[in-house]
Amino acid sequence: MATVAFHGVTKLFPGGDKAAVDHLDLHIDDGEFLVLVGPSGCGKSTSLRMLAGLEDVDKGTIAIGGNDVTEFQPKDRDIAMVFQNYALYPHMTVGENMGFGLRIAGEDKAEIKRRVQDAARILDLTKFLDRKPKALSGGQRQRVAMGRAIVRKPQVFLMDEPLSNLDAKLRVQTRAQISALQRRLATTTVYVTHDQVEAMTMGDRVAVLKDGVLQQCDTPRRMYEHPNNVFVAGFIGSPAMNLLELPLVDGGVSFGGSVVPVPRAAIAGIGEHSVTLGVRPEDLAITTGSGLDVTIDVVEELGADAYVYGQADIHGRRQPIVVRADGRIPPKRGEVITLSYAAERTHLFSTVTGERLV
Ligand code: ATP
Fold it and tell me: Which of 161, 181, 158 lies closest to 171, judged by CA?
């Protein structure tokens, strides 16, 4: 087990107009499950590949267990990586695939057998040990790739979208299995995904990247409740947080008849005329009293919940809005509903910089 630290790590690809990874500073605790998440092209795979030693670092350093490994070969970093396509050897059996890394490292035959059998038991692969990968399902192949990583007993596991080739149901099951396995082994893990649900459900902490820049690194709950900027606010959570641009009047923004105060200190010196107010779909309530009138365009019924999408006239502008409603008594398309909210459940961001104000 080991800590992992990125210090000012930067990657510039030839021909790229900006850094693929830009001064990344990230400290991962011993035994922690850290998820790197962000949209396509944000630099998450490049960050992981630099940690693995598969990509050179242009600036900064990477340390594993306190040792600077920036110039180390991949094989000398004591890491094991699980790839998206599993990268299994088709001509080898499951057992040979799992033991391959140990064999290359010159490990004793009996020890390899013992470790492969242990891993197969943990991953429920014992009866497949003599099969070739082509005779396995996608989920079973995924487990073989995991098995190959865990038999090595590395200091750090690196996983690059390991669930993306599985169907939706299997992905949910496997994500729970990987989380449970990681907790049991307590091996420091860096996991890359573009799926914010995967990030939120698996990570002890989640690091959100955009355009090569780290936006926020926090526990899933903190990230959800206190996003640092509009990008994180919109990226984490589904459906996304409502983000409404509202004029600043008399030290506050008004919306649906109530006023959300904006502390003067938060905007001192930045000359804001408007503020972006964020409110999550579940923090809006349908009321019979006064509030914001919304004309419903679409109702998505999910069983317990329904997501209601509509338009509201806010300060003379039509703005889209989504609210979570009770799925047992969902409103109907074309209806006008009235929404209320609690000011303390809203988030305020600078309309200019996108940064959180309070
Ligand atoms: P995805 O989810 O699509 O894999 P990602 O977040 O993992 O995306 P990276 O693959 O790390 O993103 O890419 C980050 C940036 O670096 C992108 O703009 C990409 O085009 C660029 N890039 C990645 N690999 C190379 C390369 N070998 N040569 C040039 N540019 C590259």
Answer: 161
CATH architecture of 241-350: Beta Barrel (2.40)
Whole-model pTM over 0.95 = no
What is the Å distance from ligand 1's center to 56 Cα? Answer: 14
- Distance between Cα 212 and ligand 1 center (Å): 9
Ligand 1 midpoint to CA 48 (Å): 11
ipTM greater than 0.85, yes or no?
Answer: yes
Does the domain formed by 4-231 have CATH 3.20.20.300?
no
CATH 2.40.50.140 positions along the chain are 241-350
**Cα 148 to middle of ligand 1, angstroms:** 26
b/e 210-230 (16+ beta carbons within 10 angstroms → b): bbbbbbbbbebeebbeebbbb
pLDDT in tens, 303-315: 999 999 999 988 8
Q: Where in the chain is the domain with CATH 3.40.50.300?
A: 4-231
Q: Strand order in 59-64's β-sheet?
A: 21-28, 4-11, 59-64, 67-68
Pocket probe for ligand 1: among 45, 51, 209, the residue whose CB has the most ligand atoms within 8 Å is 45
For the Cβ of 20 lying below 6 angstroms from any atom of ligand 1, the answer is yes
